[in-house]
Give the backbone structure.
Amino acid sequence: MMNQMRIIKISKVVLNIGLGKNVDRLDSAMMLAERLTGCKPVKTLATSRAKTFKVGRGRAIGVKVTMRGDKALELLKRLLRAKGNMLKKSCFDDEGNFNFGFSEYLEIPGIKYDPSIGIMGFNMSITLERAGFCIKRRKVRKTKVPHNHRILKDEAIEFMKKEFEANIV
């Protein structure tokens, strides 16, 4: 029997559409994010000025949707199927999180081309955690997660293989 504190679970799934200079496509990005997730998206704002990209502080540079619980699992399964249940080993980081993206939303089965949206890609970021990770988010006596309790890259890969039958290349 496995220790309950060592069980890995999905904390959140974040869908992100970065626009960069194309701020005029913000409305279509909001429509796409809402169509993919069924949730209301939030604009992401620039925290600093980037003169080379002609982006000022406080300007909208993208759209994101954060999902938790059953909706997040359902979206993740659907998008992994669209990827053919294949993930690269380089998608995983050392903290137990992983990312993957789509260059076009048309790669997802069941979604048709919409001329008002155009061609647009997006990224998915998935955060994994164990029981007890709340110590890094609480307001009083916030502390770091100990090294022996953190999720390593290999553990995250094994979790994806076991739970989602993903092929890691």
Observations:
- DSSP finds three helices and seven strands in the chain.
- The CA atoms of residues 32 and 114 lie 9 Å apart.
- The beta strands are 8-18, 42-45, 60-67, 86-87, 98-102, 122-130, 167-168.
